[in-house]
Design brief:
- With 144 residues, this protein is an alpha+beta fold.
- It is 17% helix and 51% strand.
- It is globular and about 45 Å long.
- It starts with a helix and ends with a helix.
Length: 144
């Protein structure tokens, strides 16, 4: 058997380094781009879904020429830019009642390790996925 059939080619990994987040009452759109801004991904999240698995409405990839009409369509649908120039998305976290996205909004390079930058986080933010999240007292203490 040849190695081509044993190990099929996988699509190359693209690292997204910048994000803009748009919101409406019912959805969040995360637009991510790679360092050269030639490859874009758009992730749409439902703010009304109660099940985490049903929050993601779909994701799509775009080129530089295709992203401008896509962002114009997002803005025309009534969505507004909530957070721009996000450096990284750390992940999604669920506290007692609501889900949040953990974002890095400012960073500073402090070292170079093996040809890769090491950053110091200057500022971060928790963004609620729900439009008006219900919070318990314990959750309120954790967030503030």
């Amino acid at each position: 058997m040849s190695s081509d059939t044993e190990f099929p080619l996988r699509r190359p990994t693209v690292i997204l380094t910048g994000f803009d987040i748009y919101e409406s009452k019912t959805r969040l759109c995360i637009v991510g781009s790679n360092e050269s801004e030639g490859y874009y991904r758009v992730l749409r999240l439902s703010r009304t879904a109660t099940d985490v698995k049903r929050m993601v409405e779909g994701d799509a990839s775009y080129t530089r020429a295709q992203i401008q009409p896509a962002v114009s369509e997002i803005l025309a649908s009534g969505m507004k830019l909530v957070v721009g120039n996000v450096c990284a998305i750390l992940g999604f976290v669920r506290f007692t009642k609501a889900c949040y996205i953990s974002l890095i909004t400012a960073r500073k390079p402090v070292a170079l390790l093996g040809g890769h930058h090491v950053y110091h986080v200057e500022d971060s933010r928790l963004l609620s996925i729900a439009y008006r999240p219900e919070r318990s007292d314990a959750e309120e203490k954790s967030i503030t």
